[in-house]
Amino acid sequence: MSPTPAAPPARRRREGLRALVWLSPWLIGFAVFFLYPLAATVYFSFHRYDLFTLEFVGLDNYRYLLTDDRALTSIGNTLWLVVFMVPAQLLFALGVAWLVTRLKAGAGFFRTVFYLPSLIPTVAGTVAFVFLLNPATGPMNQFLELFGITGPDWFGDRDWSKPSLTLLGMWGTGNTMVIFLAALLDVPRHLYEAAALDGAGAWRRFRSVTLPTISPVLLFSAVTGVIYALQYFTQAMIAARVASGSTDSPGSSFTPGYPEMSTLTLPQWLFQMGFRDFSMGYACVLALLLFAASMLLTLVLLRRFRGLEEVS
Amino acid sequence: MNTAPATLGRTPASAARRPTARSLRRRRTLHWIAVHSIAIALAIMFVAPLVFIALTALMTDQQALTSELWPRSWNWGNFAEVFARSPLLLWIGNTMLYAGLGTAFMLLSSVPVAYALARFRFPGRRAAFLAVITMMMLPPQVVAVPVYLIWARAELTGTLWPLVLPMLLGDAFSVFLLRQFLLTIPREYTEAARVDGCSDLATLLRIVLPMARPAVAAVALFQFFYCWNDYYGPLLYASTNVDNWTLSIGLASFKALHSVQWNLTMAATLLVMAPVIIVFFLAQRVFIEGVTLTGVKG
């Protein structure tokens, strides 16, 4: 805030008031939908609460977390997504974006084709993928059959369910691809030419010119990708539901995670605990866990932002 | 970041094997063919799922259970069957309501907030911006329990209002994106307006908004699509009340209710996808520019 020209106090106060008025909807929203709920989440985490009775239980909810196998499984699955799905998506998006920059003909067409799946409604895309990867009759395994490969059980096999979700994620990675594409096209041409003159090969040019230039964009996409993975809910829920063939009439219970808890993510377990079993106090412990992880990542991002803040 | 040129290898080009013009041209042609072949193969892989969905949607019940990929007869009636078997129009109506009102409310609240963050100088400006980023990065599940309780106390659970009404208080992602764009508008324009005696609101409406049209359009489209595709929100608030189901909730239950009818499930899936695809082709430029906008801030 240093470059602010010295303003007389009266004017400063007036400007402050003006900003307050303009920002008031946001400030109310921040208080009602962030500050208050966050405090309440901490409060509930020390209580047993089921919508009717509220009972102080100290650290019981936290202690329970350590013995809750399914919570630990869900944390493991969420970490799996962070460690494998996010890098797979980023690398794939970068590869596709790089490919599009190399195209002399039809770059616009290909960009459209690669971007389109990312707009497909999540539920629709997931239902479709369960069908495509259907082990007995799905097109994917028939395609593999052409090469003499017997395809796996995909969404029905606990070892393949998360890779199947990763495939779905790679299909819908168009957003990241477009962002990378823009970043790649922004790399000054003369840097490549200088590198080429110095005899740098394609790989060396990529490592020494492209990568350093686009690294801020990469970092941003990585952080948002990880935060997105921490929230991963819909695809896993729908895939488990459709693949298990469970009926879901209102009132009947459906436990996510099919097959064998392999697609149970932390947000799903939180949802199950809080809004299906109404163990709301315990759900708040899981929520705080999620909060800690996402805040840690936000801090990483904010360190980047510090320099950018006053560029204007 | 700017150390790139310094870290470049200084190894001299191997002059010994200097390629001739002809071999260079041949190498270029081969490269061209290779790159375009890979792109075509990838494009087929990206489009194939959509093609198989469409083909299966047109099969008979029995054929959809076989491993055949091409419909033996084209059953266009499957789409009508989906409408007949499920309250698709109700779901579309609810989804439109959620997406339409959500987008309108978001614009109404977020544009002024973004403008104030981008243009006003006031103490705490930085803190306010950090708050926006924090909220943008916050997984919605973190505060889900207390927020749910707020709406339960207001007796609005079972409806879509808990998803629409908060949009009147600004959406963090939209505020962020709009602010980033508004920062790029030269200060001279707004200063000139002020010198001419324009009020803040008039400056925003007459000067800034017309210039920010691409960003506003992108943010509106993103919000609309987010609502249209949202499953978690409606599941949390509206799934207990069949009258308020959205397309996402309805489609998720569709397969369960018609478990062996992949053809109808795929027809329903296609019907949910179709509007999105159509809108995309109508407003493709806005999308691509908008997405690019989200990435240039690293």
Features:
heterodimer, A: 312 residues, mainly alpha, MetI-like fold, two-stranded antiparallel sheet, 71% helix, 2% strand, B: mainly alpha, 70% helix, flat, disordered N terminus, transmembrane (chain A), cell membrane (chain A), ABC_transporter_permease (chain A), MetI-like (chain A)
- Percent helix of chain A, as a range, is over 70%
Domain count of chain A: the total is 1
Q: CATH superfamily of chain B, please? A: MetI-like
> What count of domains describes the coordinates of chain B?
1
Number of strands of chain A: 2
Any idea of the CATH topology of chain A? MetI-like fold
Mean pLDDT of chain A: 87
Q: Summarize the helix and strand pattern of chain A as letters.
A: HEEHHHHHHHHHHHH
Radius of gyration of chain B: 26 Å
Low-confidence sequence ranges of chain B: 1-16
Q: Low-confidence parts of chain A, pLDDT < 50 over ≥5 residues?
A: 307-312
Q: Shape of chain B from CA axes?
A: flat
Which CATH top level class of chain A fits? Mainly Alpha
In N-to-C order, the SSE pattern of chain B is HHHHHHHHHHHHHHH
CATH topology heading of chain B:
MetI-like fold
Which percent band covers the strand fraction of chain B?
under 5%
Biggest sheet details of chain A: 2 strands, antiparallel
Q: End-to-end span of chain B in angstroms?
A: 12 Å
